[in-house]
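Tutorial, part two.
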Amino acid sequence: MTTTPNPAAPGSPRGPSPTGESSPWAAGGAMFAGVMMMVIGVFGILEGIAALANDDVIFRVRGYTFKFNLTGWGWIHLLLGILLLVTGIFILKGTTWGRAVGIALTGIAAILHFLWLPYQPFWSIVAIAICVFVIWALCVDRSGSVFD
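Running the prediction step on this input gives:
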């Protein structure tokens, strides 16, 4: 007779155990989330600099509902990129407020990349997927520092 694994068992990839401990998947995911936030932040900074320095680098979209001046988009990406980079560092340090701010900023970044979709479709889809994973990992992990 075979048995099916208990999805709430410790070490299962579905989240915290009944004792409140994080699964190894979530703990590793939180470390990866912090690193990915830093990477998305650096890419956001580079996108912002590219949009500010030379508007010809970014494809111009005509008739788009959420159209901003590319300089405006550049400042948005630059500032959010800096915030994501700094928050990713604090997530790796294990701060509780870093996780909360990380969830909020990553949600904002996902919305921003949805609005940025006509300008850079492939990167926007990849960034939204990474943002969703980062939010999941930060919500599921219950440990203190990601290096514990």
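The two ends are 38 Å apart (CA to CA). In part three we will examine how such features are distributed along the chain.
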